């Protein structure tokens, strides 16, 4: 299936979720190689952009293949969203603006940001309105079923009436965090109430796609970690061999990050998924995680994957 968000046409309806700590430019490029229709940056602080924080601005880098492109912003003040989108030239290259209203992490929600906005739908609506006023580009919103109970119908209505061009809904409440099973049925029940696209998020993999029939888009997050080729599989292609996938991922990390220590440390998070998928555990898993340099890492990986 294809997906159109306002005037932006995607090749298909598969979206890589914004994932803090995982969804950097290298990983997004990797997923794009395997056919994802749209990639979304890690969540970017509006305040960080206002103050032009070096690390924040660096997170806005995109790969040449990320077309169309989407940036996800988080904050709590409508006027700050307006100011950043209308004045921050670093955002000009993005085709779509997404607003994070679903992050359940306490350090975010305590600031009234992320999914805390679901407790203040009036403010959330004003944020969407401010973004729409600041740009002619599509503005989308990602949120959860609610804070402690399902208030998604009311919230989705506010998003649509405020001008959102698409909503993405994760099938858990904030209080659930990532525990339990995503309530797909509750998300899909929103579809008849909306005249904008509905994308569903939560627990999607290549084996359970039938559960999500009826959604306009599928946003995949954790299911893509260590498995960027999931998008190819869903599109009817073949799975990639795991070691070539790892090597390509590291190559892209080297392309965008010049700190070897950072690359090795960052890849350890991904190795938890790559190695589990490959059935590697015990001492071999420890050897991978303890490798101090890329050279040492490749020696260990060559042995594990039996490269001559």
Per CATH, the architecture of the largest domain is Alpha-Beta Barrel
Uncertain stretches: none
Taken together, the total number of domains comes to 2
The oligomeric status of these chains comes to: single chain
CATH fold label of the largest domain: TIM Barrel
Largest sheet: 8 strands, parallel, barrel
Q: What is the string of helix and strand elements?
A: EEEHEHHEHEHHEHEHEEHHHHH
Q: Distance N terminus to C terminus? A: 42 Å
What coarse outline follows from CA principal-axis ratios?
Answer: globular
Tally of helical segments: 13
Helix content: 25-40%
Strand order of the largest sheet: 3-4-5-6-7-8-9-10
What's a quick, concise take on this entry?
The chain is of the alpha/beta class and 308 residues long. The protein has helices spanning 25-33, 46-50, 54-58, 78-87, 106-109, 121-134, 152-162, 184-188, 230-234, 242-256, 260-278, 282-290, 294-304, and strands at residues 3-5, 8-10, 14-16, 38-45, 69-74, 96-101, 139-146, 166-173, 198-201, 217-220. It has an eight-stranded parallel β-barrel. It has a two-stranded antiparallel sheet with strand order 1-2.
């Amino acid at each position: 299936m294809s997906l159109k968000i306002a005037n932006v046409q995607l090749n298909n309806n598969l979206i890589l979720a914004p994932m803090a700590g995982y969804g950097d430019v290298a990983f997004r490029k990797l997923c794009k190689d395997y056919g994802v229709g749209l990639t979304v940056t890690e969540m970017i602080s509006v305040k960080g952009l206002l103050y032009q924080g070096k690390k924040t601005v660096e997170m806005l880098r995109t790969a040449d293949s990320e077309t169309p492109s989407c940036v996800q912003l988080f904050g709590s003040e409508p006027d700050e969203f307006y100011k950043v989108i209308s004045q921050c030239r670093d955002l000009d290259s993005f085709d779509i603006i997404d607003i994070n209203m679903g992050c359940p992490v306490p350090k975010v929600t305590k600031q009234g940001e992320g999914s805390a906005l679901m407790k203040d739908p009036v403010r959330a609506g004003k944020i969407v309105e401010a973004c729409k006023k600041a740009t002619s580009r599509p503005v989308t919103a990602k949120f959860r079923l609610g804070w402690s109970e399902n208030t998604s119908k009311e919230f989705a209505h506010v998003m649509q009436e405020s001008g959102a061009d698409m909503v993405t809904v994760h099938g858990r409440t904030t209080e659930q965090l990532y525990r339990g099973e995503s309530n797909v049925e509750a998300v899909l029940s929103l579809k008849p109430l909306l005249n904008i696209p509905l994308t569903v998020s939560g627990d999607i993999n290549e084996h359970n796609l039938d559960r999500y029939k009826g959604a306009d888009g599928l946003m995949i997050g954790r299911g893509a970690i260590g498995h960027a080729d999931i998008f190819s599989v869903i599109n009817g292609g073949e799975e990639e061999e795991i070691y070539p996938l790892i090597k390509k991922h590291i190559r892209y990390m080297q392309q965008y990050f010049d700190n070897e220590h950072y690359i090795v440390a960052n890849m350890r998070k991904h190795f938890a998924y790559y190695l589990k998928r490959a059935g590697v555990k015990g001492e071999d898993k420890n050897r991978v995680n303890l490798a101090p340099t890329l050279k040492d890492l490749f020696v260990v990986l060559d042995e594990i994957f039996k490269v001559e």
